[in-house]
Amino acid sequence: MPRMVEVAVVAFHRPCARTGRIRAGGPGAVPLAGPPRATAGAAMATKGAIVDTGYSYPLLSVFWTLLWFFLFALWFYLLFAVVSDILLSHDLSGWGKAGWIVVAVVFPLFGILIYLIVRGGSMHERAMERAAQQEQALRERVLRNHFPPGGGPADEIGRLAELRDHGAISDEEYQRLKAKVLT
Q1: Would you state the pLDDT for residue 110?
Q2: Structure confidence at residue 183 (pLDDT)
Q3: Number of domains comprising the chain
Q4: Which of 60, 75, 86, 178 is the most buried (most CB within 10 A)?
Q5: In this protein, which residues make up the domain named SHOCT (predicted)?
């Protein structure tokens, strides 16, 4: 059993083929078997050894990665906006919608750009029309739910007066129902 630990430690401390430096901290590094040494980092810092982490990622690469990430996110936003505009357009036929979807899928970047050039100016107008229709539907729903048609005390008193005038209810019933409506 001790032989396997020695082989693992030797393999763990093998020098890097590219630089020739010892990877993972050199002789003070934690072996694969056994408890970690508390002074490994301090011993390396005092010896002045160079620790090769095995990768290099400069700051400019970080900025380029962030730029590409945000461009990718922007492209997805445009893709969803364009596809939703295509599917919600009432002025396009089914074949027109299918054609634009195929263009957007087959030519991902250029398809989106072509759609924005050809139909991008009216995207805002269609979005405003949809928003106005949704707002109107919401207003009608709120009015219908909070102010029922034919509801309200004045309408009920008017119906009671009609019933009294036609002789369906007596004057006493009319007064009693009127007081009930007003309370």
Answers
A1: 92
A2: 81
A3: 3
A4: 86
A5: 155-182
